Amino acid sequence: MRGSENVAAEDSTTISDDGGATTVTYNDIEDSKEDEKAVDLPPNPAQHPPTQPQASPYQEGELVLAYHNQRVYPAKIMKVDLVLNEWRYSVHYPGWKKSWDEVVGMDRLMKYTEENRQKQQEHNKKQEMESNAKPGSKQKILTGARGKKRRSGSVQKEKAMLLTEKRVNIYIPPGLKKLLVHDWECVTHLGKLVKLPSSPNVDEVLSKYYDYRLKKDDGDGCRLAGSVGEVVNGLRRYFDKALPAMLLYKNERQQYEEAITDNIAPSAVYGAEHLLRLFVKLPDILDSADIEDTMLLELQEYLVDFLKFLQKNQSSFFAAAQQSTEISDLTIKKQED
């Protein structure tokens, strides 16, 4: 039997014989029964088009779990490409700089489900135990997947990242920072307290965020309803416990005693002004909480997203603060006169 070497060229194929290569068309082969028996013919590409890959199981904007350097991290798919009939995904790791972004294949990804999150935690714990068991080994987080030798500066940077690994850094937009400062000035210097009960209160603000997030996620499928609910409920619990302990100024104590009676939760009375104060304290609160590192990364993304939501709805959520601004302006003008 003759050997064959295929070359794609319209309706022809190149058949390699002992003496050399001869280009034979499909019409010629059809006419030559003897050659047809002697040669294993390749399928006609015009009659058998290339097999199309199945639809991508992951979509842009989807939150997934990704293997990186023997660990599993939450990741967000930023772009989906089809390269040589294989799906390739550009992913970003929430909480990490864009310099850690990379392109991975399907073998590096898992769906973000409760079952896979459990596998993620078990896998990472196992890797950590094995890493600690090795003499002189040090934990490496999101490091050199390309296998290149790292410079001393990169090592120092990695050490600094490890020291702050569990620290949740919450970025508060400048507009909301101004509200925090204004809130402090009104209460401590001008004696202007937020009128209670607030409308909307914290419960209502959190519910509005929950509805907003679910409505948006139905369009791009990047988050799970269960995760949004966990974050919202967690913020409500933290607020109710933290308000009397660390979120009130001295001038607000009496108001609190009068407003919170008959086991009424603070989240049902106070509003966005006091909820925003919680985000100043959250890094310290979460730093002392027993939360998995990978869960902290995911939580940080939600918290930043929630602050963006607050800023976007600033005019309706911080009505009391705006009213105080007008009062303080009048007070300042009177003092100047």
UniProtKB/TrEMBL annotation:
GO terms for molecular function: promoter-specific chromatin binding. One of its GO terms (biological process) is regulation of long-day photoperiodism, flowering. Residues 115-131 have a biased composition (Basic and acidic residues). It is found in: Nucleus. Residues 58-122 form the MSL3 chromodomain-like domain. Pfam families: MRG, MSL3_chromo-like. Residues 1-57, 115-157 are annotated as: Disordered. GO terms for cellular component: histone acetyltransferase complex; nucleus. The keyword Transcription regulation applies. Keywords: Chromatin regulator, Nucleus, Transcription, Transcription regulation. It comes from the Eukaryota. Residues 11-26 have a biased composition (Polar residues). Residues 42-52 have a biased composition (Pro residues). Residues 149-320 form the MRG domain. This is Protein MRG1-like isoform X2. The gene is LOC113711669.
